[in-house]
C-alpha cells in the first residue's frame, strides 16, 4: 500500500533515504553497516579497492551492483511527484489507460486488414506500424504502473524498445515515400476505368463487325464451294477421259510396234529394225512415264481435300457463321480454299502439259513408222533418191537417242540432184553409223557432243557420205580390224553392224572407209558410192581402210 498522503505538500526530504533506512536496520540484524576496507569512508563511489594481492575487479563489480541496487531503492513512485492529487492522478490514469487500450487494439485491426487484403501493397509496413503502436501502448501502460511502483528501469527498457521500433519504422518508411506517392490516385483509377470502358465498347463493335463479316463469308463460301465442286466434277471427268485415251493410244502403239517388227523382218532390215524399234521403245517408255506421272499426280491430287472440305461445310451448315468465326478449322478454311484453288489449277496445267508431251511423242512415233514402212517396200530396188532427204530420214530414226543424250547435229550437205540409189542399203548404213557415233560419244560430258554429217559429189560423180563424231576415237591397231566380223570395242556390242555395212557398200559397188587420229580424237566413217554401181561382189572380203 502506498504511504498515507497528508493534506499538505510533502517535501522530498520527508521520504526516508536509503542511508537512513540502512542505519535503522543495522541494529536489527545485529551487524554494522559495511565499512570501506583499507580506506576512508570519503573515498569516491566506484573507486578501485586494492587488497594485499592488488586485484580490484571482483570487489568493484560487487560494489557496483550494490550501489545500483541501493540507488534503485531510493526511487519513489510517480504519484509522489503528483502529490497524490486525486484529480491529477485520475487524469494520468485515465489518459494513459485509454491510450494504452487503443494502442493495443489498433495492431489487431491492422493485422486483420492485411489478412483480408492479400493484394494490398506494402502490407508488411502495416505490420511494422502495428508493432510500433503496440510498443507505444506499452509505454503508456508502464506510466500507469509507475504511479504506484517505482520500476523506472523496466519503464526505461520499454521506452528503449519503443525507440528502436520507432527508429526502424522511420528508417524503412522514408524510402517508401516516393513509391507511395507514385501509386495511382482515385482520378487515375477513374481514367483507367474509362479507358477500359472504351476498350469494351470497341470490342463489342468489333464483335458485331465480325458477325456481319461471318454472314457475308457464309455466302461467299457457299458460292466458292459450288465452284470447287464443279471443278472437282470436271477434273474427275477429265481423269476418266484421260485414262481411256491413254489406254487407246497405248493399244495403238503396241499394234503399230508389232506391225513394224513384222514389216522390218519381212523387208530384211535387221539393223534398221533394231534402231527403229529402239527408237519406238524409247517413245513408248516416254509415253509410259508420262502416263505414270499423270496417274501419280491424279492419285496425289488435292481433290480429296476438296471433298473433305465440302463434307465439313455440310456438317456445319446450320451454324456456319459460328464455325467460321470461332472454330479453328473454320478460321483456316478461307485460306485453305484459296490455296486449294491454286493447287488444282496447277495440277490441271501440269496434266495438260503431259498430254501435249504424249501427243508430240505419238506424232514422232508416227513419223518413224511411216519412214520405216516407206523404205520397207523398196528392198534391193534402185530408185531416184534425194541425198538430203535420205540423211534426214536416218536422223529421224535416231532422233530419240540423239535428243536424250543432247547430241548437237551439224549438216554440211551439198545440193545434189536426185540419183539412183538403193535406199534400203544406204539407209541401213547411215542409221548404223549414226548409232555408233552416238554410242562413241556417250562417255563424254553431256552437252559436249557434236555429230557432223556431210555429203558431196566429186568431179567423177562419186558420192561421199561422211559421218564424223567427237567420241573416243579408234586406236591405230584397230583400224585394220574394225570391219571384221565379230570385232567390237563395246562390252555390249556384237561386232556385226559395221561388217554388214561394209558388205552392203560392196553390194552397191562402193566402199566404206574409216579415219581416226587416235583415242580421244573422234572418228570419221565415209560411204563412197560411184555413179553407176558395178555388179555386186558378195565375197565378204574385208576392205582395207583408207584415208577419208
Automatic annotation (TrEMBL):
It holds the Pfam family ETR1_N. InterPro entries: ETR1_N, HATPase_C_sf, HATPase_dom, His_kinase_dom, Sig_transdc_His_kin-like_C. This is histidine kinase. Keywords: ATP-binding, Coiled coil, Kinase, Membrane, Nucleotide-binding, Transferase, Transmembrane, Transmembrane helix, Two-component regulatory system. It comes from the Bacteria. Its EC number is 2.7.13.3. It catalyses: ATP + protein L-histidine = ADP + protein N-phospho-L-histidine. GO terms for molecular function: ATP binding; protein histidine kinase activity. It comes from Ideonella livida. It is an enzyme of class 2 (transferase). The chain crosses the membrane at residues 89-110, 122-148, 154-177. Residues 1-52 are annotated as: Disordered. Residues 196-259 form a coiled coil. GO terms for biological process: phosphorelay signal transduction system. Residues 311-533 form the Histidine kinase domain.
Amino acid at each position: 500500500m502506498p504511504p498515507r498522503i497528508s493534506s499538505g505538500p510533502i517535501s522530498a526530504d520527508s521520504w526516508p533515504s536509503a542511508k537512513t533506512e540502512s542505519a535503522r536496520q543495522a541494529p536489527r540484524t545485529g551487524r554494522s553497516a559495511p565499512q570501506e576496507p583499507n580506506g576512508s569512508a570519503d573515498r569516491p563511489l566506484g573507486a578501485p579497492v586494492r587488497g594485499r594481492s592488488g586485484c580490484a575487479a571482483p570487489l568493484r563489480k560487487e560494489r557496483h551492483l550494490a550501489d545500483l541496487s541501493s540507488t534503485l531503492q531510493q526511487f519513489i513512485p510517480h504519484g509522489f511527484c503528483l502529490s497524490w492529487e486525486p484529480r491529477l492522478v485520475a487524469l494520468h490514469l485515465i489518459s494513459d489507460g485509454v491510450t494504452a487500450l487503443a494502442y493495443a487494439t489498433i495492431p489487431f485491426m491492422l493485422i486483420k486488414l492485411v489478412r483480408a487484403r492479400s493484394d494490398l501493397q506494402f502490407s508488411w509496413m502495416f505490420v511494422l506500424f502495428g508493432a510500433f503502436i503496440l510498443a507505444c501502448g506499452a509505454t503508456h501502460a508502464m506510466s500507469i504502473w509507475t504511479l504506484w511502483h517505482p520500476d523506472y528501469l523496466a519503464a526505461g527498457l520499454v521506452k528503449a524498445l519503443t525507440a528502436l521500433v520507432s527508429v526502424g519504422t522511420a528508417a524503412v518508411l522514408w524510402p517508401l515515400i516516393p513509391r507511395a506517392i507514385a501509386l495511382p490516385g482515385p482520378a487515375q483509377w477513374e481514367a483507367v476505368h474509362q479507358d477500359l470502358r472504351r476498350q469494351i465498347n470497341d470490342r463489342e463493335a468489333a464483335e458485331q463487325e465480325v458477325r456481319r463479316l461471318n454472314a457475308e463469308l457464309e455466302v461467299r463460301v457457299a458460292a466458292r464451294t459450288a465452284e470447287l465442286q464443279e471443278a472437282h466434277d470436271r477434273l474427275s471427268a477429265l481423269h476418266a477421259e484421260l485414262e481411256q485415251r491413254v489406254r487407246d493410244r497405248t493399244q495403238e502403239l503396241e499394234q503399230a510396234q508389232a506391225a513394224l517388227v513384222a514389216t522390218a523382218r519381212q523387208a530384211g532390215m535387221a539393223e534398221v529394225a533394231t534402231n527403229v524399234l529402239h527408237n519406238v521403245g524409247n517413245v513408248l517408255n516416254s509415253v509410259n512415264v508420262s502416263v505414270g506421272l499423270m496417274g501419280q499426280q491424279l492419285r496425289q491430287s488435292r481433290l480429296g481435300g476438296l471433298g473433305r472440305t465440302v463434307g465439313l461445310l455440310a456438317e456445319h451448315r446450320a451454324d456456319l457463321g459460328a464455325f467460321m468465326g470461332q472454330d479453328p478449322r473454320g478460321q483456316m478454311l478461307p485460306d485453305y480454299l484459296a490455296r486449294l484453288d491454286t493447287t488444282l489449277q496447277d495440277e490441271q496445267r501440269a496434266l495438260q502439259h503431259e498430254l501435249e508431251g504424249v501427243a508430240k511423242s505419238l506424232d514422232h512415233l508416227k513419223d518413224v513408222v511411216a519412214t520405216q514402212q516407206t523404205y520397207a517396200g523398196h528392198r534391193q530396188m534402185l530408185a531416184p533418191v534425194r541425198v538430203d532427204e535420205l540423211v534426214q530420214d536416218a536422223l529421224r530414226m535416231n532422233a530419240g537417242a540423239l535428243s536424250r543424250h543432247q547430241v548437237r547435229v551439224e549438216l554440211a550437205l551439198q545440193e545434189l540432184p536426185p540419183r539412183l540409189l538403193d535406199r534400203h542399203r544406204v539407209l541401213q548404213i547411215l542409221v548404223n553409223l549414226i548409232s555408233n557415233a552416238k554410242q562413241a560419244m556417250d562417255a563424254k560430258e553431256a552437252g559436249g557432243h557434236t555429230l557432223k554429217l556431210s555429203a558431196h559429189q566429186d568431179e567423177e560423180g562419186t558420192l561421199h557420205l561422211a559421218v564424223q563424231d567427237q567420241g573416243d576415237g579408234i586406236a591405230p591397231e584397230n583400224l585394220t580390224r574394225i570391219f571384221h566380223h565379230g570385232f567390237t570395242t563395246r562390252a555390249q556390242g556384237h561386232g556385226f553392224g559395221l561388217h554388214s555395212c561394209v558388205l552392203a557398200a560392196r553390194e552397191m559397188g562402193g566402199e566404206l572407209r574409216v579415219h581416226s587420229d587416235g583415242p580421244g580424237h573422234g572418228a570419221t566413217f565415209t560411204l563412197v558410192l560411184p555413179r553407176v554401181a558395178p555388179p555386186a561382189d558378195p565375197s565378204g572380203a574385208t576392205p582395207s581402210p583408207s584415208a577419208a
